[in-house]
Amino acid sequence: MRQGETLRNIGDAAKASGVSAKMIRHYESIGLVEQARRTEAGYRLYTGQDVRVLQFVHRGRALGFSLDQIGKLLGLWRDQDRASADVRALARSHIAELDRKIAEMEAMRRALVALAASCHGDARSSCPILDDLAAN
């Protein structure tokens, strides 16, 4: 902490970072981010750097990285001797996982479109969608 630096409470840190107070506490409890400094009364205090770390985590989550991956990325971010190839490898691995999930979702969509097209959608009680769900 720099001398004269403004400290924020958890609510202000949450607003500034986009991470809810509940998730900040969770990230601290699992060791993803460092434990906050505390007042004598036990209230958490956050520095500007703490908020930047929380923003980093928030952005990583928005890009779909797992907490484990974000932990690795935070380690690389803090390591001034890191090789950018390590960061790129992590990103490419995540891209491959996203591509796999997209392919799965596209297959689910195609199957559901076909089922929806086969359903009469009228007063009949028979429904191919329900029949298919029951068959599997």
From TrEMBL:
One record GO biological process: positive regulation of DNA-templated transcription
Task: Spell out the CDD domains in the cross-references.
Answer: HTH_CueR
Gene Ontology cellular-component annotations: cytoplasm
Per UniProt, the keywords (alphabetical) are: Coiled coil, Cytoplasm, DNA-binding, Transcription, Transcription regulation
Pfam family name, one: MerR-DNA-bind
Protein location: Cytoplasm
Coiled-coil regions in this chain?
88-115
InterPro entries named among the record's database cross-references: CueR, DNA-bd_dom_put_sf, MerR-type_HTH_dom, MerR_fam, Tscrpt_reg_MerR_DNA-bd
| Domain HTH merR-type per the UniProt entry, residue ranges | 10-76
For this chain, one GO molecular function annotation is: DNA binding
Protein name per its UniProtKB record? Cu(I)-responsive transcriptional regulator
Q: Source species, please?
A: Telluria aromaticivorans
Q: Which gene encodes it?
A: cueR
